[in-house]
């Protein structure tokens, strides 16, 4: 196993490959961070497969991560939010990446992240096929959370070093913060009623980058949602690159994930770029949310 995974065990034959994926993502993170300078503008007229404006940094980070992840022996597929189709690269784990999550925050210089998931099945795959997932958070410092079936660990990335901060990340039970995406008039009446309750119990913290918004839920306890909207019944976030990996991380940290009815991880994966409502956070709040939406 890779030195950086420390206490986490993946299981079976996947330890080495997941360890190398984690190494590539964490060694590339400082380069991505530095390379954002000068790449904070849209690529002229281009949109990615889900219609997002592509920033120069989105395309560049995808190229860099894609090249390195595909070179790992035991990675069989590479898929990204920024690519139309899955790239076949041999036999082995399928790696799905959101190279820059929250890339519209490049304009305002707010936090962003990189998300990855390692699936044992060809992509699109259900979250039950994940053996590891995680994210890098580009905040005031660069941190990384990695989850396997064994649990979740948090690291601090300093140049080429990845130092373990917490070997057993646990979502605090007491909820403190919430962040809900989308315009309020587009929420369903049921979600709106739930939000009104939560507003009385927690502090609003929404920053427009799921990685950073979920990272503070992991730190302080609470809930993050990007719900179904009137104009987008499946919400905004993508199951393969965002919903599944983040749901996996939160569940391994003792939280819950939901698409409104049940765990994100049991949602059918029909389309590569398919969307899903995303709700993650403290188990009690997700239970209440599902009751409210039922
Ligand atoms: P990405 O930058 O990878 O396309 O993801 C953006 C996502 C997610 O990070 C965030 O939660 C949400 O979009 C923000 O959307 P709004 O601008 O609608 O708040
Ligand atoms: Mn995007
Ligand atoms: Mn994203
Ligand atoms: Mn992205």
TrEMBL record:
InterPro entries for the chain: FBPase_C_dom (IPR044015), FBPase_class-1 (IPR000146), FBPase_N (IPR033391), FBPtase (IPR028343)
Compartments, record wording: Cytoplasm
GO terms assigned for molecular function: fructose 1,6-bisphosphate 1-phosphatase activity; magnesium ion binding
SUPFAM superfamilies according to UniProt: Carbohydrate phosphatase
Highest taxon of source: Archaea
Binding site residues for substrate: 101-104, 206, 236
Predominant location category: cytoplasm
Fructose-1-6-bisphosphatase class I N-terminal domain mapped to chain residues: 44-158
Pathway membership, UniProt: Carbohydrate biosynthesis
Keyword presence, Aminoacyl-tRNA synthetase: no
Cofactor note: Binds 2 magnesium ions per subunit.
GO CC terms in record: cytoplasm
Enzyme Commission number(s) of this protein: 3.1.3.11
Limits of the Fructose-1-6-bisphosphatase class 1 C-terminal domain: 172-292
UniProt key word Nucleotide-binding: no
Binding site for Mg(2+) 1: 81, 98, 100
Region entry Disordered, spans: 252-280
Keywords annotated in UniProt: Carbohydrate metabolism, Cytoplasm, Hydrolase, Magnesium, Metal-binding
Essential cofactor(s): Mg(2+)
Top-tier EC class: hydrolase
Residues that hold Mg(2+) 2 according to the record: 98, 101, 242
BP GO terms, sorted: gluconeogenesis
Family note: Belongs to the FBPase class 1 family.
Protein name per UniProt: Fructose-1,6-bisphosphatase class 1
Protein source organism: Saliphagus infecundisoli
Gene this protein is translated from: fbp
